[in-house]
Amino acid sequence: MKQLDTSLYFITDSTFCDEEEFLRRVELALQGGVSILQLREKTDSARQYMKLAEKVHAIARKYDVPLIIDDRLDVAMAIGAEGVHLGQSDLPVEAARRIAGKDMIIGATTKTVEQAQEAFRMGADYLGVGAIYPTTTKVKTILTSVDTLRAICQAVPIPVNAIGGLNKDNIHVLKNTGIAGICAVSAIMKAQNPLQAAAELKQAAKDLALF
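RESULT FIELD:
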């Protein structure tokens, strides 16, 4: 089983700024203590996605942080990213594992215990579970209860991360759930100071002994 630090899992959002500002914010977040980084581009063509991914990967490597590509295994493999994250409507984890091999990190979004157990059996290395709170991202969300999150954490032996509208002021609801980390998008990406926001979120999780 791969040793993964998913404690502060940062997911990007490029919809509100130009590329230069986007890359600046990504680097500041990494400086703030992000432990794993996901590039999420829902509307880019494969070529656009790949070009941006190459730039983000170069930054992530400076901080020795794994880069996960959302949805697109082809883009992840083309740029040599460390991993791919797959939703319930994307390529099945089992197929991705067969194509990518044993070394690539594969994450999966799950919302039920059954989905979580299936993803684990198919070869997922970690899970994202949520949304815990409503989000401002342009991704369709269905709320997941903290009780369901706790049940998923108990049902699988791989890291489980909570996602969805999380910030330093509301993560207390995750106490004693068994999560391995927190996924954050807007709380870091849209912060006035992404470095400070990442550091404060990481410290808040530590203060609450969430994992």
